[in-house]
Specification:
Layout (H helix, E strand, L loop, with lengths): L9 E3 L24 H10 L4 E6 L1 H4 L5 H16 L7 E5 L22 H10 L7 E4 L2 H10 L2 E5 L4 H8 L9 E3 L2 H9 L3
Parallel strand pairs: 1-2, 1-4, 2-3, 4-5, 5-6
Length: 194
């Protein structure tokens, strides 16, 4: 029996990349897709490129919201994307933080970005090739995550992106392969290269 070849994927940060950056989303009404995101994800779907959400959600560990709200937010995201004919192939979250109020989340995990545990698990689950993949986010921690697993880092200027590009980026060793004004621009660039 031969195994299927590993596929490249696009890993997306959530807050500031897919939805408006509002700090902690502690109520369902605070979740809003950014303009053009659903259409950009649909373009990846149409090209048969897996789209995986990888997100740190330390608000859970800090006691800012319950796990049920996180589930509801992701259900809303999936529904809003579906209304535009788009979908994600997986959602992987890190609920941990070293200063967590809830003891079960106060662990030294391997999944909190810029560590690579979320991407490694997704690759294992879905048969993905991390080295041929892209990580898109609005923070340098997303770019470092890409570098740490051999993927291509892409910065979007939504969310914290503009500020990170101006104030954090110049002193960083890891630099984005591409800087896009938003996810649509990043996806266009990725589709030209995948």
């Amino acid at each position: 029996m031969t195994s299927l070849p590993l596929r490249p994927a696009v890993f997306l940060d959530r807050d500031g990349t897919i939805n408006e950056q509002m700090g902690y989303i502690n109520h369902i009404s605070r979740f809003h897709l950014l303009p053009g995101v659903a259409e950009a994800i649909r373009r990846l779907n149409e090209a048969r490129i897996p789209v995986i959400v990888v997100t740190n959600q330390s608000g859970l560990a800090r006691g800012y919201f319950p796990a049920e709200l996180l589930t509801a937010v992701h259900e809303k995201m999936v529904t809003l994307l579906a209304e535009h004919g788009a979908h994600v192939d997986g959602i992987y979250i890190c609920p941990h933080h070293p200063e967590a109020k809830r003891e079960e989340y106060r662990v030294n995990c391997d999944c909190r970005k810029p560590k690579t545990g979320l991407l490694v698990q997704a690759a294992k689950d879905l048969g993905l090739d991390l080295v041929r993949s892209f990580v898109v986010g609005d923070r340098w921690s997303d770019l470092k995550t890409a570098a740490n697993c051999g993927a291509t880092p892409v910065l979007v200027l939504t969310g914290y992106g503009s500020g990170d590009a101006l104030y954090i980026g110049p002193s960083q060793e890891v630099q984005p392969a591409m800087v896009g004004v938003d996810l649509a621009a990043a996806v266009q660039w990725i589709l030209e290269r995948i």
